[in-house]
């Protein structure tokens, strides 16, 4: 029996976490799938975690799931609560599948990555999964199929203590075969970010994710080049 704790930063009703659950259900063997995900969108919240205030939790009816709970807090808080209350015997914490890339320096602001990182902080092996978006909607059945293969591969590999996997899928045509799994280093390039003022005088970000710097051999270079970029991150 393998017990998974699932979280994300797009919210418990997002299509990515449903695709993740189906992909894990397709693995060989018996599984328990426990969901502890935010009640709403928490993208870009980083490793925010709440411990001083009461956190509301609601049981939900989601499939496939052994149990599912909407946590009115961040992904890191979801993992904390899930491991202590709903799935203390968890074998793996899996965060995602995020709608949007989380490569390079994104790891410091990503709620998806934080959900996995919190699992490692609490002593569990973990994987963060993200689907880079470029120019068209995500074809979730394709990502779901890739995820079954990727998670199977990563679960069979050893991880150094205090490390976890961060996976970014390229945005290819629907029903594309499994791309090459490319193990690499995270990009350290600066994420270009510009702002302009709107008519109200407020500042609005104008940068385009695709325009970020691309260094060959990094996760950004691999993912933008059509490969599944896999990096080891540490706490």
- Report the CATH C-level class: Alpha Beta
CATH topology: Stationary-phase Survival Protein Sure Homolog, Chain: A
Main pleated-sheet profile: 9 strands, mixed
Helix vs. strand class: alpha/beta
DSSP summary: helix tally: 5
The assigned CATH architecture is: 3-Layer(aba) Sandwich
Q: What's the topology here?
A:
Blueprint: E1 2-7, H1 15-25, E2 31-38, E3 57-59, E4 67-71, H2 75-86, E5 92-99, H3 111-121, E6 126-131, H4 140-155, E7 163-169, E8 181-183, E9 195-197, E10 203-205, H5 219-224, E11 228-234
Parallel strand pairs: 1-2, 1-5, 2-4, 5-6, 6-7, 8-11
Antiparallel strand pairs: 3-4, 7-11, 9-10
Helix pairs in contact: 1-4, 2-3
Question: Which short descriptors sum up this protein?
Answer:
235 residues, alpha/beta, Stationary-phase Survival Protein Sure Homolog, Chain: A, nine-stranded mixed sheet, 11 strands, 25% strand, globular
Written description of the protein model:
- The protein is built from five helices and eleven strands; from the N terminus they run E-H-E-E-E-H-E-H-E-H-E-E-E-E-H-E.
- The chain is α/β, with parallel strands linked by helices and 235 residues long.
- The chain has one domain: Survival protein SurE-like phosphatase/nucleotidase (Stationary-phase Survival Protein Sure Homolog, Chain: A, 3-Layer(aba) Sandwich), CATH 3.40.1210.10.
- It has a nine-stranded mixed β-sheet, with helices on both faces. Strands 9-10 form a two-stranded antiparallel sheet.
- Helix 2 packs parallel to helix 3.
């Amino acid at each position: 029996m393998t017990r998974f704790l699932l979280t994300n930063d797009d919210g418990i009703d997002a299509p990515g976490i449903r695709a993740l659950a189906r992909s894990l259900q397709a693995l060989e063997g018996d599984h328990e799938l426990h969901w502890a995900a935010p009640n709403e969108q928490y993208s870009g919240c980083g490793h925010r975690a709440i411990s001083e205030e009461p956190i509301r939790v609601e049981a939900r009816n989601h499939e496939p799931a052994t149990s599912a709970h909407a946590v009115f807090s961040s992904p890191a808080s979801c993992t904390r609560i899930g491991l202590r209350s709903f799935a203390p015997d968890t074998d793996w914490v899996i965060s995602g599948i995020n709608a949007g890339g989380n490569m390079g320096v994104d790891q410091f602001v990503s709620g998806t990555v934080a959900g996995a990182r919190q699992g490692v902080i609490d002593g569990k092996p973990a994987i963060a999964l993200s689907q880079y978006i470029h120019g068209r909607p995500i074809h979730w059945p394709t990502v779901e199929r890739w995820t079954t293969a990727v998670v199977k591969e990563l679960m069979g590999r050893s991880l150094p203590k205090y490390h976890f996997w961060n996976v970014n899928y390229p945005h290819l045509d629907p029903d594309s075969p499994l791309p090459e799994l490319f193990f690499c280093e995270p990009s350290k390039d600066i994420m270009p970010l510009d702002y302009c003022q709107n008519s109200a005088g407020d500042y609005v970000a104008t940068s385009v994710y695709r325009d970020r710097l691309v260094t060959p051999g990094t996760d950004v270079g691999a993912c933008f080049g059509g490969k599944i970029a896999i990096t080891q991150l540490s706490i």
